[in-house]
Amino acid sequence: MQYDQSWMGYGFVGGIEAGVISALAGLLLFGVFHWLGRRNGWSFAPQVGWSFLVATILTAGGDLSDLFYFNYAPLQSLPLLKLKLAQVHDPDSIGLRVVCELLGVALGIYAGWVLCNSDWLRRAFRSK
């Protein structure tokens, strides 16, 4: 799903912004899948796997499909290429943005895993 990227910066700044969005999505989705996993007896592997898959599809899916299209699709004409490039925000740094989005998803899921395994969470919600 491609979200509106017109407000984002260009180059490294746009990559960082996309990475932060992906990290937040990964963190929230890990929280959802951790909650589901605890109710259904899952280990951490399905929780992390499903969180990574869904967060990647939601946040990096559009850029990944554009990157794949520009590298492997046969471009029939120059006007078609110009039309496709006009639809992409910052086509010069699409690879950097994809890398930042994937790293952001991984860091968000890691942060969620750390928060779910930390001792302060158990102490805060322990009944006395």
Fold blueprint:
Elements: H1 12-40, H2 44-72, H3 78-86, H4 94-117, H5 119-124
Q: Mind explaining what this structure looks like?
A:
The protein is an all-alpha fold. The chain has one domain. Helices cover 76% and strands 0% of the residues. It has 5 helices and no strands. α1 runs parallel beside α4 and α2 packs antiparallel against α4. The radius of gyration is 18 Å and the shape is elongated.
Main β sheet profile: none
Shape: elongated
Could you tell me how far the N terminus lies from the C terminus, measured between alpha carbons in angstroms?
45 Å
What is the number of independent domains?
1
How many helical elements? 5
Calculate the mean pLDDT score and round it. 88
Approximate strand percentage: under 5%
How many β-strands, per DSSP?
0
* Oligomer type: single chain
Radius of gyration: 18 Å
Query: Which class do the helix and strand fractions yield?
Result: mainly alpha
What string, H for helix and E for strand, traces the elements in order?
HHHHH
The helical percent reads: over 70%
Poorly predicted runs of 5 or more residues: none
